[in-house]
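Appendix B. One record, verbatim.
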Amino acid sequence: MPLQARGVLHFRQIVLVLAIGYFIYQFIDTDRTMFGWQFRFLTIWGLSGIVLTSVLMLRLSMGQSTNEHLALISAACVISGMVVLLYWRLYFDDPSSVSSRGEPSPWFQQYYLHLLGPLLQWIDALFILGAFRVFVRPFAYLIGLIIVYALWIELFVQRFNDAPAGRVTSGLPYPFLNNLTLDDRLMFYVTNGVVALLMLAIGFAANWVIGRTFRR
């Protein structure tokens, strides 16, 4: 589908408006007494990626740029995909484990942040842009983002916050992390880093199949 087609343009405008709306809402809804505000959560890193990639994709449709930023967009998609995977896996096990407030977010926020927003991003990346076409830089971006987020919550968020508290430590943004020892948390980060890389590989495979089927 041509990137500047009217339907693509309108789709990307809607995606961007939704992303910016929810991004702004986080500043209203966040607990400002907590260090790091809403950026303690991987979910908001994923949302920030959705805002950024939505801007980049819309600029393509408006003819304001010819740089497709394929590596950045594909890495951001994987972060959003991991948000969905981790959230619902943990939520169905124990809803309180993914909320520092001990209860789920309002339904309209829960389903946008952890389902609709990432889904719209992936639809554009796979069916319109075909973002998963470069193979080295996305891996580097993804590994870098995972390391930076882990260091952020371990060295800063945990240090300057006292809640939520768990059996082992306190201050980490997600309650279940505070029930894990440092070694267990490191294993959690590494394991999910591997899952993220596998998701990126799946993105490459899906992009190839969709390209041959829909974008010929």
